[in-house]
Design goal:
This protein is an alpha+beta fold. It is built from 10 helices and 33 strands.
């Protein structure tokens, strides 16, 4: 199936097979406040345990959509699901897998009473190979999950999840346990385990392949690329090790006109379909086949601008918290995710910053398919220490690996506003942590810009992202009206009272045009907010709201030194009423008015793809 024909339901869009089944729906559930479940063997296939209620997966128990809606702190929870034999089966030479999109924060998994997997990291996916645990001669199997999430552990990456009993300021309800889709897959024992695409729009793409096991004999890997059913390129390699790379040259890219037709951008989100087939090199027998897709595009910085396909591209972004009223950090399915991408584009934005969470890969699929730039971020911890460093780094490695092939993802943000490292200017360990995260990300993926710390206290960022919630458009004009004005801001304490750049290298990179300036959080206007609501600037009428919103956008758009912006935020979230949409998804102003404010009625496009 072509990427353009998918309905977005497959949980892992970049690596697709036919034999899969969703386990989302009603599961047995129980709280384990005494942490007695393991001692009492709740995981036993026939054990009764304390599964005294039901929950709708993948909604966390704090969410109304889960059917429970209990927001009190519960450190340990248990899930149980009975799975028909036909859904979870493996024939000769096959393996049965259970995939978890995300379980917050520590998970243990049993099948038919046998321990099959353990994972730490509330944002990243993991897989349980349950083949050897399948009980023969039974009509159904029993899957049990224990999730542990300590609300008081500030070393644990939590993002916007509040550690206090009730949400306050810009923090929201907690998430415990399963919050992304759970699904089964029947696969060959030898198979494509991981697949990544590294595009080069001037010549082709590099396919990076990881097999599940060391080949017992030579295998041949065939890769075919096509667009709209027409072949573009093909390549083969004989492999004897689990990891290999195949360089695919696309002849059409040699012609400048044809190249333009194949490049991916928000204005023209062209996707290239890919099929990878693994065969026995001796007799040609097919071992495994997977479908995928990619986008031919490059990202970077230079000449004081963000570069898309080597051209200056003005970034109009909006901050999206990814929390919804009924499902909290989870989502109600691919339709909702598609609609969010559509709404962001309808408002006039060409980019979105998913804030303090790693969003469902199906959101990235719709951003790929519909054309929306995405800044990839993760949830932060709130204290610094070796354990916090280990937890976040491990999770970040997994997330970069998960998302690196999505063409929509154009920037990496491993740290935001010094959360989890609040003394970067003064503490050498935290300073090095910021630098190390940035350099580690570049080592994993040298093709995208990386921010060492979003908002302020940059150590070595490819984009100088500045957070400025000033509600006075004239003051914004004074700060960013020209290079000399911003030099004074850069030398001072910064708009939010924090130093913007803490290294000479960062200042030099900005001055040389190698770290363009973006106002990556601004605005934060509320409309007729209640006294208990949080916002940066309050307005009391539609007229006042529209006028101030327009003036703030206009002040940044008129700056000759700003390469892009990110408005806070997409939608009202809990008590944070900064959204362009109300919490129910309705716009605070007519959509055409919002779009006119965001883009400017007389905007001059900056570069061919702006």
């Amino acid at each position: 199936m072509r990427a353009s024909e998918q309905d977005g339901t497959y949980p892992r869009p970049i690596l697709r097979r036919e034999r899969w089944h969703s386990l989302d729906g009603v599961w047995d559930f129980g709280f384990d406040d005494a942490d007695a479940g393991e001692r009492e063997a709740w995981f036993a296939a026939e054990g009764a345990g304390a599964f005294d209620r039901e929950i709708t997966v993948p909604y966390p128990p704090e969410a109304p959509a889960s059917g429970i809606g209990d927001t009190a702190p519960h450190r340990v929870v248990w899930y149980r699901r009975r799975i028909p034999r036909a859904v979870l089966a493996a024939g000769a030479g096959e393996r049965a897998l259970v995939h978890f999109g995300a379980v917050d924060h520590r998970a243990k998994v049993w099948l038919d009473g046998r321990h099959v997997a353990e994972h730490v990291g509330g944002q990243s996916p993991f897989t349980a190979d349950v083949t050897d645990a399948l009980r023969p001669g039974t009509d159904e199997h029993v899957l049990v999950v224990r999730a542990e999430d300590d609300p008081a552990d500030l070393a644990q990456p939590r993002g916007k999840q509040d550690w206090q009993d009730r949400p306050h300021a810009v923090w929201y309800e907690r998430t415990t346990g399963i919050w992304q889709t759970v699904w089964t897959e029947t696969v060959p024992a030898q198979r494509v385990h991981d697949l990544a695409w590294v595009p080069d729009p001037t010549r082709g793409v590099l396919a990076e392949l990881t097999l599940a096991t060391v080949p017992s004999g030579p295998l041949r890997v065939d890769v075919e690329l096509s667009h709209d059913g027409e072949p573009l390129a093909a390549g083969s390699a004989t492999v004897r090790t689990p990891r290999s790379s195949i360089d695919l040259v696309i002849p059409a890219l040699r012609n400048g006109i044809d190249r333009e037709d194949l490049l991916w951008s928000p204005e023209r989100p062209t996707l290239i379909d890919a099929r990878v087939t693994v065969r026995d090199a001796a007799d040609g027998t097919v071992v495994d086949t997977v479908d995928s897709y990619l986008g031919l595009r490059s990202t970077g910085v230079g000449r004081g601008a963000f570069l898309l396909n080597d051209r200056p591209y003005y970034v109009r972004s909006v901050l999206n918290q990814g929390y919804r009223p009924d499902t909290l950090i989870a989502n109600s399915g691919t339709g909702e995710l598609r609609r969010e991408v559509e709404l962001v584009k309808e408002m006039g934005f060409n980019a979105v910053r998913i804030h303090q969470k790693a969003e469902d890969p199906r959101f990235l699929y719709w951003a790929d398919r519909l054309g929306l730039l995405v800044w990839g971020e993760t949830a932060a911890a709130y204290e610094f220490g070796s354990h916090a460093v280990e937890l976040l780094t491990r999770e970040w490695l997994d997330l970069v690996r998960r998302d690196r092939s999505h063409p929509s993802v154009v920037t990496w943000v491993p740290m935001n506003e010094s959360w989890g490292a609040s003394d970067i200017p003064h503490e050498p360990a935290q300073h090095h942590y910021s630098l190390a995260l940035a350099e580690l990300t570049r080592a994993l993926d040298p093709t995208r810009p990386v921010l060492s710390n979003e908002g302020w206290e940059h150590t070595d960022s490819d984009i100088l992202g500045v957070h400025d919630y000033c509600g006075d458009p004239e003051e914004l004009t004074r700060r960013y009206g020209d290079a000399a004005a911003f030099d004074a801001v850069l030398a001072g304490p910064g708009p939010q009272g924090r130093t913007l750049a803490v290294t000479a290298r960062q200042i030099e990179r900005y001055a040389a045009g190698d770290a363009p300036l973006m106002i990556t959080e601004f605005g934060g206007l509320s409309l007729r907010a209640d006294d208990d609501d949080f916002s940066y600037t309050r307005t009391s009428s539609d007229t006042q709201y529209a006028a101030l919103l327009g003036d703030l956008f206009g002040a940044l758009r008129s700056s000759p030194i700003i390469a892009g912006f990110c408005y806070t935020q997409f939608m009202d979230t809990a008590q944070e009423t900064n959204g362009l949409l109300f919490a129910d998804g309705s716009p605070k102003l007519p959509m055409e008015t919002i779009r006119r404010i965001v883009t400017g009625e007389k905007d001059t496009p900056r570069g061919p793809a702006a």
